[in-house]
């Protein structure tokens, strides 16, 4: 998964898609996931980083991450090239 190049993300979790004109906000964990995506981390790396940081099992993180990616896809904020 990659964040689309034209998507603007602020430090406060404000996300703007200039193509559609839509804007969104996300919580701190969503901000962290987006930052990791911008740092070119793949899904497996993001899962490990979050599982280690939040002392959660990989299955829980993977499900939540999958749900988050589905939401980002539905709003055309990411592309599915992984």
Characterization of the model:
- This protein has 82 residues and is α+β, with helices and mostly antiparallel strands.
- The chain has a single domain (2-79), classed as Arc Repressor Mutant, subunit A (Orthogonal Bundle), CATH 1.10.10.
- The chain is 49% helix and 17% strand.
- It is built from three helices and five strands, in the order ββββαααβ.
- Strands 2-3-4 form a three-stranded antiparallel beta sheet, with no helix packed on it. The protein has a two-stranded antiparallel ribbon with strand order 1-5.
- Strand 3 and strand 4 (22-25) form a beta hairpin.
- Helix 2 packs across helix 3.
- The longest helix is centred in the last third of the chain and has 17 residues, at 58-74.
- The N and C termini lie close together (5 Å).
CATH class: Mainly Alpha
Number of domains: 1
Strand residues, percent: 15-25%
- CATH architecture term: Orthogonal Bundle
- Characterize the biggest β-sheet: 3 strands, antiparallel
- The count of strands amounts to 5
Shape: globular
**Euclidean distance between termini CA atoms:** 5 Å
Strand order of the largest sheet: 2-3-4
The percent range for helix content is: 40-55%
Q: What is the average per-residue confidence, as pLDDT, rounded to a whole number?
A: 90
How many helices?
3
Category by helix and strand content: alpha+beta
* Secondary-structure element string: EEEEHHHE
How many whole angstroms does the radius of gyration measure? 12 Å
CATH topology, which one? Arc Repressor Mutant, subunit A
Q: Catalogue the unreliable spans.
A: none
